[in-house]
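[User]
If only I could read backbone structure tokens as easily as an amino acid sequence. I have put the entry right below:
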Amino acid sequence: MENILIIDDEEMLVKGLRLSLIQEGYSVDYAYDGEEGLEKIKSGNFDLVILDLMLPKIDGLTLCKEVRSFSNIPIIMLTAKGEDVDKIVGIEMGADDYLAKPFNTRELIARIRALFRRTTSPFVKKHDIIKIGDITINIPDKIVQKNGKEIDLTNKEFDLLVLLASNPGKLYSKDKLMDLIWGFDFYGDTNTVNVHIRKLREKIEDDPANPKHIFTKWGSGYYMK
């Protein structure tokens, strides 16, 4: 049974969402502010966090960044604003997905299931260990090293890297990457792919502006040699 933590200050929303998730077979805990939520993440054993953007004590973006300093737990960020800039900032801070309020509970559950299906990258496990130049990817242990030094990646960054590295030379469009990595209709917003590729390059490339691992074919997509 997967254990989910909801961090949101809207009490009625939390109660309704918790009931729906329990009915789906999940174990659910909750916190009404960012400070309490952070303590529960540090002390608990959660498989996924549903995190509101606007929170008392510690806001969602700050909390997401803090969590990413010690954990790669999947995070779905909720935002009432629904503006692209908030979504992109949330992704840059390490969120795996976002959903604008008000939302359909069934859609949130579908996204939760998609995240759980893809956290172990089952669609690309051709090898246990992949080596490309100075990069070593240990798929079972989800460890990436560059010249022997471990690199800290988010779940989505890891999934993107494994997919591209497992299929060297294969070109993936942004839409295809959205389908394979996120697994649902992202309403045509492929900016999240650009953000993740940029963040991934910053972590694995010596010079992100002149990459030697992840290449862009303009107007077509991305690939690794």
In short: The radius of gyration is 18 Å.
